[in-house]
Amino acid sequence: MTEDELAGSLPNVREGAVATYSSANYAATFRASHAEDIRETSARLSSAQVAIYPVDARGLAIATDIDSIETMREMARETGGRAYVNQNEIKDGVAQAFSDQSAVYTLGYYPENKKYDGQYRSIKVKLNKPGVEIFHRRGYYAIDPTQLKGYNPNQEVAAALGDALPSTLVAFRAQVKSPEGNSVKGKMGVTFLVDTDTLSAEDESGGKHMNAVFYATLYSRDGKMLANHSQKVDQIFKPDVYQQVLQRGMMLHMDLDPIVSAAEIRLAVQDARTGMVGTIDAPTP
Question: pLDDT tens-digit profile of 55-67?
Fold first, then answer.
């Protein structure tokens, strides 16, 4: 093929575009070599309940820059957000991110595969209602949090008690009774019922060893912590009793001194062995 024939077979490229194509090829290579890093970072953000909404401030972009745009889209897809790229109305992208936060649902499940092998596991969420678009995280890494460097279970429960978003790694229900309706008059009653499938159990001579800590924290209307109560269950259950606990759940009752200025009570249950936490918020009666 002659030089003229080769030139005629190429698309119409404007002068000076060679460097742009070269840059795009480098970006594609860079992104491909760091695909696992991008996915892992996205998974960690998702685990922290952070959805990424990238907004490209450059507005409309030429096709050669599509790789950086695709990286933004990938980060958004992995964390449950959406990318606003290749458009000039930047303010619309910011407004869309705020609008999406007005309709957020927290869904959780406990995988049957309990093997923490560090591998990436995909998640699919489907709706029966047609015509509805859903954005959600696409997966997670099966990593045992207790094996992470610098892991501190006390910090985990402190963060969960201070976080506005609920923690869902330990599942439980609770009932809060006023001092007038509680069996112990003058005390506010709190009853926990924990799904023991979400707690760890170790084999011990004579049965199963379970270790959980229960917390009840009172907050004022402006978010100030007024009081914090905790109680531990550290016990070996005989096989027959353990089976009953699995079927019925683990129940614990607390009696608390009422505080007039308390507006909200945050309840938490922590698996003392793994450090995993679940929380529930409720108004004080």
Answer: 776 665 555 455 6
